[in-house]
Amino acid sequence: MNVDLSLLERWLTGWSLARGVPLPRHHGGGLAVDVGRPDQLRRHVFADAGEALQECASRIHEPFVYLKAPVDPDHMRRALPDRWTIEAPHYLMYLSTPISASAASPAGYTARMEEENGASLIRLLDAAGQTAAIGRVALSHGTAVFDRIETVESHRRKGLARALMIALDTVAEQAGTTERLLVATEAGRALYLSLGWRVLAPYSTAVLPAP
Length: 211
Fold this sequence. Notes:
It is a single chain. The chain folds into two domains: about 5-90 and about 200-205, no CATH class; about 95-200, Gcn5-related N-acetyltransferase (GNAT) (Aminopeptidase), CATH 3.40.630. By secondary structure, the protein is α+β, with helices and mostly antiparallel strands. It is globular and about 55 Å long. The chain is built from five helices and twelve strands.
């Protein structure tokens, strides 16, 4: 599967719905989201680290404006002046069919679903009713975007992230989703691979450091 601008737009639309920010717009050969938050004013996403991304970078002088592209960090580093910081690598991942596993919560935990912004949010709660793991899935035109899959440190290594992903995938399946997308950290990639996801491309981020 090619990682082109239309696929990135589907990913970014789901990301925007899950975060409650404006939907992406086409801008300068790529996509832009006006996030409008103190730690992220705006993000620009491009299909590569070529001329369009480099021209965009040349016009940015303030911190907290992010550049993103499905390239490896070394490629992003070579494309930009030294003033740009390249963040830790991430991975754009894809799944076309439902996860074939039971959605039962691990013993001692219960699942609770709610709506947040434009996404379905699932929490796994411990025996005291405290959030042990949390994640979101946003649905748009047949695409499900999984976002912010997190497990509280004291509850890690108990299978909660796996159970959470299966529960979120059930929401996607019930909606008739034909495409699932997420961006994974290095730590999360192994879990998603074990569930049948595959890596489409590295996904790199550049930002100007705060003064």
